[in-house]
Specification:
Radius of gyration: 21 Å
Bound molecules: zinc ion
Helix content: 40-55%
Largest sheet: 8 strands, parallel
Oligomer: single chain
Strand order of the largest sheet: 4-14-13-12-11-10-6-5
Structural class: alpha/beta
Shape: globular
Distance between the termini: 30 Å
């Protein structure tokens, strides 16, 4: 892995992250392909949109079709036909949010599959092994995410357990890297591993989490446990506080966030990588992002509107189709509604990141940010511009 920062503007960083399957220009947004597919769009369409990296889900792929099957197919890249970088989450978040009848012990999590009720165990060690078999470019350390709102005791317990798990997961990851190739089905020999900072919204817990995770030592660092329901300004405060303590020369990944505004505001606080289901999920629900704010395509006012979703958008959907047509597809429940809406929303997210990167390169990120807040979210420009 190579991470080279070329420009800075305030706390914002413009960098190039070189991984086993290619280069990611950061700050970057990673479309979510939970089960080895970004819902509604093909890998060719993702290529054409300019997506440089995807996020896939360890929990889901472990349960179905199984990481050993994927390893036999040559790893997740070969299996899904995507030749650019892939990040896999550790599965921790899904165990806590999805799996019925889970039991948490110091060893790990025992849970029932939400698919067939079969019992599974996920530990820091097995999460590293599963991700090695999947062959992602970036593997994530196994963590426990406290729910929101969490008491200080609960957030503290989840954070300290995450630290102990970080050590075990890191040790297993390094062992796997040292094993002779024959002993490990490892499609991506140059896989790297990121640690995850927890601690809820308590700044002193975040401090201890950063110190402990840095001590274990990872290739990059993620901020977890945010965008789980806390007020947005509290999230921005925790991001600023935490990112400032992470090593300057390693990539920083804010997990699970967020809105277009979250991307801009978190870049301003030093974040390099993002993932979120918002653009894809909202597309399927008919909410389309535009530079002047979200648009709900099913509204009757669009029934005969010949304009594209966003006249300034260069996506394949806006270049060819009217709001009236997209509304018709959505109301008639045509499959193409999901595809065309997803292409637009992902283009909007990826294009927002392109504009952010250009602004950092030109030293005009503060102006970009002010204009974005005024036109997109229409928040008072004074708000949170002090960072
Ligand atoms: Zn568009």
């Amino acid at each position: 892995m190579d991470f080279e920062i070329s420009h800075r503007d305030g706390f914002a960083r413009r960098a190039r992250l070189r991984l086993a399957h290619g280069v990611i220009e950061t700050p970057a947004f990673m479309p979510v392909g939970t089960r080895g597919a970004v819902k509604g769009v093909t890998v060719d369409e993702l290529h054409a949109l300019g997506a440089e990296v995807l996020l896939a889900n360890t929990y889901h792929l472990h349960l179905r079709p199984g990481d050993e099957l994927i390893a036999r197919a040559g790893g997740l890249h070969a299996f899904m036909g995507w030749d650019r970088p892939i990040v896999t989450d550790s599965g921790g978040y899904q165990v806590f949010s999805l799996a019925p009848r889970r039991t948490l012990t110091e060893a790990g999590a025992v849970f029932r599959s939400h698919l067939d009720g079969a019992e599974h165990t996920l530990t820091p060690e097995s999460a590293a092994e599963i991700q090695a078999r999947l062959g992602s470019d970036i593997a994530m350390s196994f963590d426990e995410c406290a729910s929101w709102p969490a008491t200080r005791e609960a957030a503290d317990a989840a954070m300290t357990r995450t630290l102990r798990w970080a050590r075990r997961g890191r040790d297993r990851f390094l062992q796997l890297a040292d094993d002779p190739p024959a002993a490990r089905p490892r499609p991506t020999p140059d896989q790297v591993q990121f640690g995850i900072i927890q601690g809820g919204t308590f700044q002193d817990l975040r401090d201890r989490s950063v110190a402990g995770t840095r001590e274990v030592g990872f290739d990059g660092y993620a901020i977890g446990g945010l965008s789980v329901g806390e007020p947005v300004d509290l999230m921005y405060d925790v991001v600023a506080h935490t990112a400032a303590q992470l090593p300057d020369d390693r990539p920083r990944y804010l997990m699970g966030a967020g809105t277009p505004e979250d991307l801009v505001e978190s870049v301003a606080r030093g974040i390099d990588l993002f993932d979120c289901v918002l653009p894809t999920r909202n597309a399927r629900n008919g909410q389309l992002f535009t530079r002047t704010g979200p648009l709900v395509i099913k509204n009757a006012r669009y029934a005969e509107d010949p304009r594209p979703v966003d006249p300034d958008c260069g996506c394949p959907t806006c270049r060819r189709h009217s709001r009236a047509y997209l509304r018709h597809l959505f109301v008639a429940r045509e499959m193409n509604a999901a595809t065309l809406n997803t292409l637009h929303n992902l283009y909007f997210y990826l294009d927002t990141m392109r504009r952010i990167r250009k602004a950092i390169e030109f030293g005009t990120f503060a102006e970009f940010r002010r204009a974005f807040l005024q036109t997109f979210s229409r928040r008072p420009p004074s708000l949170s511009l002090d960072v």
